[in-house]
Structure formats: C-alpha cells, structure tokens
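FW: tagging you since you asked about this chain on Friday. Here's the raw sequence from the shared folder, copied in full. Didn't touch anything.
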Amino acid sequence: MTLYFDFYDDGELTLLLKRRVALLGWQVEDEGIYELMARRARGVPRIALSLLEQTWQVVRSRNCFAIRGEDCHYACRLTGLDDRGLRHPERQYLQILARTKGPMRLNVIATSIGLAPQTVSTTIESFLLRIGLIVKTDKGRAITEDGLQHLDRNPDESIIQEGQT
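HL: got it, structure written out here
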C-alpha cells in the first residue's frame, strides 16, 4: 500500500497547537501566537509543536506562567527562525542565488553552502520551491522576486544564529 501525505495548512496547525496547550494546561495571553507559530512551522506538525515547546521554555526561564507573543518571537530569534520558517541554511541558499543574479547549478550551490547536493535538494530546495522563493530552470536554480523581498525583510544579522546567545 502506498500512502501519500500532504503538508498541514496554517488553520490545521493552529488547531493542533491550541489542543496541545489545552492538554498541557498552559496559559496563553496572546491568541495570535498560534497563527505566528503555524506560519513558521512549514506545514509540519513536529516543527509547530517544537516551536511551542521552545516558547514555553522561554516563558519558564522568565519565571512566567503565560505565553506571550514576545516569548514566541524571542524563541524564534534564539533558534534562527525567520517569519517564513527559514533557518540560516535556507537564507544562505537564497543569498547565494541573489548574489549571482542568474540561474545556478545545484552542485555549485551545495559546494558554496558546504553540504551534499542531495541534502540541499531534499532539505532546503523542496521547501523553497513549495513556497515560491526559488524556481528551477533549464540553466539551474534562480531566486524569485518573492525570494529577494524575503531576504530584504529578514537580514541575517537581525536573527541570532543557532548556537549563539
């Protein structure tokens, strides 16, 4: 039997997060954080739940008992997660394409990032293609106008990189 799975939409992830918060008995001050987390979860429940847990850890580290929007934003900055759910490797991929101002082959991009081409193709490109930040052409990969705008809105220096505090 072959089963096909699809990504969750933001509404489904929001519902999942609300159920988890209710099940755990956590308090939420700002209902908007559910949508914020869902947007950054890339359609993957595991990522949404992980972000919820990281946000709760921030709340507890501040000796508070209710999740606020600022706690979620801080958790995202700590893990290097931007407003579309991209981390440093995805932004690095986009920056490489933006600098070249034209299509680029997968092997060249992978070498520039320091990852294997198959890893780049399966873990980075698939999401960037799905959300329309890059396109594949006969000559290679190219960044879209939406991808360029995303880089402008999310410069790397404004986000704490993974492993740094």
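FW: The chain has eight helices and four strands.
HL: agreed, and Residues 88-154 form a domain with the Arc Repressor Mutant, subunit A fold (CATH 1.10.10.10).
FW: great, closing this out.
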